[in-house]
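thought: user wants a sequence for this fold. calling inverse folding tool.
action: design(structure=
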C-alpha cells in the first residue's frame, strides 16, 4: 500500500478482451474510432491490436473452455458521445444507457457483440450540458 510521501505514476497501458468472433469485434471497435492490425506472438493465437500513444487494446479469441472477459467494463473518452453511440449501435451494439448528462459529463453505455459493457464519456465539459 502506498503512503502519502510516495510519488505514484501509474497508468493503464494494456487492456485485453476475449471474443468468440474477433473479426466482428474488431469491426465494432473500429466504429468507435480505433484502428486494428492483426498480430501473432510466436505460436500464440492470432489477435487484433490497436495501439495509441501509451495504450494498447487487444482482442484475443475466446477458446471454447476459456474464461470470458465480459464482466470487464471498458471506458472510452470521446469527443462526441451521441455520434459514437449511434455508430456503435449501428455496428450491432446494444443500447444499455442512451446518451445523457451525468456527473462525469455526457455519458452513454452500450454492450458490444460479446456482452462487454462499453462506457462512453465526453472529453469536453461543453458536451455534458447538451
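)
observation: tool returned 130 residues.
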Amino acid at each position: 500500500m502506498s503512503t502519502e510521501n510516495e510519488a505514484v505514476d501509474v497508468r493503464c497501458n494494456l487492456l485485453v478482451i476475449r471474443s468468440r468472433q474477433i473479426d466482428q469485434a474488431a469491426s465494432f471497435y473500429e466504429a468507435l474510432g480505433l484502428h486494428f492490425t492483426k498480430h501473432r506472438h510466436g505460436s500464440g493465437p492470432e489477435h487484433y491490436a490497436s495501439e495509441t500513444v501509451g495504450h494498447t487494446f487487444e482482442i484475443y479469441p475466446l477458446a471454447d473452455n476459456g474464461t470470458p472477459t465480459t464482466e470487464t467494463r471498458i471506458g472510452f473518452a470521446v469527443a462526441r458521445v451521441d455520434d459514437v453511440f449511434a455508430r456503435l449501435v449501428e455496428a450491432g451494439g446494444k443500447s444499455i444507457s442512451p446518451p445523457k448528462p451525468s456527473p462525469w459529463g455526457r455519458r452513454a453505455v452500450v454492450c458490444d457483440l460479446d456482452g462487454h459493457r462499453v462506457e462512453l464519456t465526453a472529453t469536453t465539459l461543453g458536451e455534458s450540458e447538451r
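thought: summarizing for user.
answer: Here is the designed sequence. The chain is about 20% helix and 35% strand.
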